[in-house]
TrEMBL record:
InterPro entries: UCP010219. Keywords: Membrane, Transmembrane, Transmembrane helix. This is DUF3159 domain-containing protein. The chain crosses the membrane at residues 21-38, 44-62, 67-85, 105-127, 148-168, 188-206. It comes from Cellulomonas fulva. Signal peptide: none annotated. The keyword Transmembrane applies.
Length: 217
């Protein structure tokens, strides 16, 4: 989300670079491929997905690069692997991701409904005068008093609401139908590419307002 505060949009930064894409896509892709190639055997697919996530963490440890993205990925994959292993249902590998999207949908929509849109809060946090830039916390929410800015930030938050809602609308029926192949495909197609698109749309909407953000007195 730091990309929203940048002067120029970087597609590479939006998706975490090539490594970020590989780390995000590899576990789910391997799970589906191995599951289908092994004649819908669950254990090899779970091992492949878990191994891919662990390898990403090990490589980052060896290279001494930041672990945040890989570590968060291995937690998500680990929960998916454990859930599917306990139930014996391959579709449950994707259940945790669906719950996360549902939570994000509710949370993001709530910020819009209460008048504190998520994008405005993010820009306040990463703004030069915001708390992560060394300024007081009140600078992070100074934009809230500007109705025009609040309207723009609301519009810029709606692509995220739409993204989470679309993921659930497409993937939930596939989950309940136990269609692992199409569910995995939909998750991959609506993962990194859709996130990058939502970031770009939000960035385009907020770019003209970036210098107009008021500072607290």
């Amino acid at each position: 989300m730091r990309v929203l505060a940048a002067q120029e949009f970087s597609a590479a930064d939006a998706v975490g670079g090539v490594r970020g894409v590989v780390e995000s896509v590899a576990p789910g892709l391997l799970f589906v491929v191995v599951y289908l190639a092994s004649g819908q055997r669950l254990t090899p697919a779970l091992v492949a997905a878990g191994a891919a996530a662990l390898i990403a963490v090990v490589v980052r440890l060896v290279q001494r690069t930041p672990l945040t993205q890989a570590f968060s990925g291995v937690i998500g994959v680990g929960i998916g692997v454990f859930w599917a292993w306990r139930t014996g249902d391959a579709s449950d590998y994707f259940a945790y991701g669906l719950l996360i999207n549902a939570g994000y949908l509710v949370g993001t929509l709530a910020t819009v409904l209460v008048g504190w849109p998520l994008v405005g809060l993010v820009l306040g946090l990463f703004a030069k005068d915001g708390p992560l830039g060394g300024g007081p916390w009140r600078n992070a929410v100074a934009w809230h008093d500007d109705r025009a800015l609040r309207r723009v930030y609301t519009l810029a938050t709606l692509p995220w609401v739409a993204m989470f809602a679309l993921r659930l609308a497409v993937q939930l029926p596939l989950y309940f139908a136990d269609d692992v192949a199409w569910l995995g495909t939909a998750k991959l197609a609506m993962g990194v590419p859709l996130t990058a698109l939502a970031l770009w749309v939000s960035w385009v909407l907020v770019s003209p307002t970036r210098r107009a953000t008021p500072s607290a007195p």
